[in-house]
Amino acid sequence: MASSGAEVVTIDVQAAKDLINSGYGYLDVRTVQEYNKGHVEAAKIFNIPYLFNTPEGRVKNPEFLTEVLSACGKEDNLVVGCQSGVRSLSATADLQNAGFKHVSNMGGGYLAWVESGFPIEKPKEEL
């Protein structure tokens, strides 16, 4: 087996929650707009979009790895999540290929997290 194409580890939201509670960082790769509507509750959380929505459709964030590297180290324990688990799978693969050793993809994404009734943070409603 080639070491460069390491298999992405996908975990379910319960396993992700346990890892986050044990001190793993949570990397939310959704857009800032999605993130601001509500996100996973985590002590260490980073929002670095993997794709941008443009008039031409979704475009990969060319600075994704640079931005992650400025926020996290390659030895950091990270759970990567998005809305449904598709973007985070690609993002996790990219991070592994870039030398990140402890990254897991959260299968089902934020939707599965919410469905499981796990804690989320939402913007405070204006009174």
TrEMBL record:
InterPro entries: Rhodanese-like_dom (IPR001763), Rhodanese-like_dom_sf (IPR036873), STR17/STR18/HARC1-like (IPR044684)
SMART domains, per the entry: RHOD
Rhodanese domain span: 27-122
GO molecular function annotations of the record: catalytic activity
PANTHER family referenced in this protein's UniProt entry, alphabetically: THIOSULFATE SULFURTRANSFERASE 18
Name of protein: Rhodanese-like domain containing protein
Lineage, broadest ranks: Eukaryota, Viridiplantae, Streptophyta, Embryophyta, Tracheophyta
